[in-house]
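queue> pop job 88
queue> type: inverse folding (structure -> sequence)
queue> payload:
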């Protein structure tokens, strides 16, 4: 496992594509959130730039037939496989997950058995489909598991939420390891409540006994800088006054995971475009250098949105296969040699 993490260089997320689903006035499906269908030429371009690590978020529940033993629509599974193949053919590491399942996979004990059964059934089918894939493919149990708008949502949630997440992830490990093929030793990822780096989240994570297990975390902090904020609290300049926030995060990760022999990937990080690319690059340099010191690899969250106030994190324009913020690209690629 350590050799696989060392072989990873720098990463990118195919956001808001296979993880899209129906909401209010928007249709579901891969293009439901305004992005074009993923094509091999896009992934070829990502790989050619120097990325050897890609995360493919996938939302499964709209394509699951509850009346037929929670069977995944064959066309959806085949499409996911096709996109994974685009990356594997480029010799890229691929992280495949369950994404945006929070509307039904609610981490509470009430109704747990029924949700667990569906969750395990979904992973049984994914595992079967990909069991003979090489070690380039990794499975990620959950994405930001939490009760949406619940108590302490991004700070580690409640004890009950953490316990249910731990139980689900323990089941995930059993499903993958019992599915045969290369899944018996495939690298797999679990996460904290909300994928948070907060002390309660890290302390509350139970690590199953497994020799090929990593922890997935997300880093969008300080929130005032990374995400949309009201005018009073918005931050557009990174003068490193708040660098201590990042330093504390990396110190916690080191003490609570790495020093215990548990490898970590930051599977999402990023800051929305506020017309402050140079400042974002400075923030990225602090994150990537801190991560590099600890051997942690990071993946930029790219939703392919440009000029969308509060939600623009595009670096790569998929329709034309162009890099739209070369300064950020250069910063990401510099991390390859770290």
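queue> result:
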């Amino acid at each position: 496992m350590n050799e696989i993490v060392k072989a990873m260089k720098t990463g990118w997320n195919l956001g808001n594509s296979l993880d899209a689903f129906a909401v209010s006035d928007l249709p579901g499906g891969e293009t439901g959130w305004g992005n074009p269908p993923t094509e091999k030429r896009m992934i070829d371009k990502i790989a050619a730039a120097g990325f050897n690590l890609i995360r493919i978020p996938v939302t499964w529940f709209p394509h699951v037939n509850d009346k037929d033993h929670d069977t995944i629509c064959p066309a959806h599974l085949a499409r996911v496989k096709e996109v994974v193949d685009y990356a594997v053919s480029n010799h890229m590491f691929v992280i495949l997950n369950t994404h945006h399942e929070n509307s039904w996979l609610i981490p509470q004990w009430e109704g747990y058995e029924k949700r667990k059964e569906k969750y395990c059934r979904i992973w049984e089918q994914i595992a079967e489909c990909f069991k003979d894939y090489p070690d380039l493919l990794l499975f990620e149990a959950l994405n930001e598991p939490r009760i949406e708008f619940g108590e302490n949502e991004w700070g580690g949630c409640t004890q009950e939420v953490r316990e249910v997440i731990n139980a689900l992830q323990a089941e995930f490990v059993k499903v993958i390891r019992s599915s045969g093929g290369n899944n018996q030793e495939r690298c797999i990822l679990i996460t904290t409540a909300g994928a948070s780096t907060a002390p309660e989240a890290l302390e509350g994570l139970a690590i199953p006994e497994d020799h090929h297990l990593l922890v997935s975390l997300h880093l969008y902090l300080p929130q005032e800088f990374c995400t949309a904020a009201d005018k009073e609290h918005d931050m557009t300049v990174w003068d490193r006054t708040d660098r201590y926030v990042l330093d504390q995060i990396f110190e916690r990760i080191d003490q609570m995971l790495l020093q215990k022999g548990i490898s970590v990937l930051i599977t999402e990080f990023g800051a929305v475009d506020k017309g402050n690319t140079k400042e974002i690059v400075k923030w990225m340099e602090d994150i990537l250098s801190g991560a590099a010191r600890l051997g942690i690899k990071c993946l930029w969250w790219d939703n392919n949105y440009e000029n969308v106030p509060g939600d623009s994190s595009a670096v790569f324009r998929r329709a034309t296969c162009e890099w739209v913020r070369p300064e950020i690209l250069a910063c990401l690629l510099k991390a390859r040699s770290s």
